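Hi F.,

I've been meaning to write this up properly since the lab meeting, where we talked about keeping a consistent format for the predictions we share between groups. The idea is simple: the sequence comes first, exactly as it goes in, then the structure tokens exactly as they come out, then a line or two of notes. No screenshots and no reformatting. I'm using this chain as the first example so we have something concrete to point to.
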Amino acid sequence: MIDNQHHTFHPLQQPDLTDAEYQTIANFVHKKSGINLMDGKKELVRARLTKRIGQLEMKNFKTYFQYVMNDQSGDEMVFLLDALATNLTSFWREPQHFDFMTKTFIPELEAARRRPGGGGPRMRIWSSACSSGEEPYTIAMVVLEKSPYFANGGDFRILATDLSTKVLNIAKKGQYGQESVKNIPPIHLNHFMNKTSTESGAHIWVIKPEVRRIISFRRFNLMEAMPFKGPMDLIFCRNVMIYFDRDTISKLVEKFHNLLEIGGYLFIGHSESLSGLSHKFQYVAPCIYRKVQR
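Output, unedited:
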């Protein structure tokens, strides 16, 4: 049963997080999301969950975790994972990937799809940890700018998923402040976004409908079975696996391989590598791998 005997919580009386409670929460988060909190993240957990415990007027972490476990709706588990997930992103982050798309990926795919029996104009890209939307919107801008073939009626779709409902809500709105768009090249900024002002007079940039319609945003936990069949031509999974242990990474990489079209690519973060792992991908360049066999 849920412990309904909530206690008044004073913001100065921060509840203590014992080592045992921390271990219980860390094990739960790892099982549900793959995120590894084992390497000294106790203070992060305490800081991010203390506010929620206060909002629910609970006296300690034990009571809160019982509440999470007994919430049959699953909403509080989503809130817990949202609170502990780290979401850092920006437009044109790690630009070498977008250079590779322009010089190699898009020309290859265009040529392959133009050949007899090539299947017609089709491109499928998955942004598997899309955060607040900067990555999938950047992908869309690059393809639309560099490929008239796919920009003019070609079957081009981006699937953008994330564990966090909080950042997905931001992504779906497609509205960004002046600071957020500073890395976007002017040609893309003016072509694919509209500048407007809020009631307070602040300038914001809004993604145009022709870009938004290409992207489907969905909540998805990378630890779950894939609910979509693919095949994908390109998968972005950047700066996510740094939070996973080796076994979790191996299983995830195998999922990606199964979902990709032969000849498709996997992009990972600049601080990540598949070296030392058993996998079927062919190394192409730092952070870039290709599926060459089933």
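Notes:
The two ends are 48 Å apart (CA to CA).
The chain has a mean pLDDT of 86.

If this format works for you, I'll send the rest the same way.

G.
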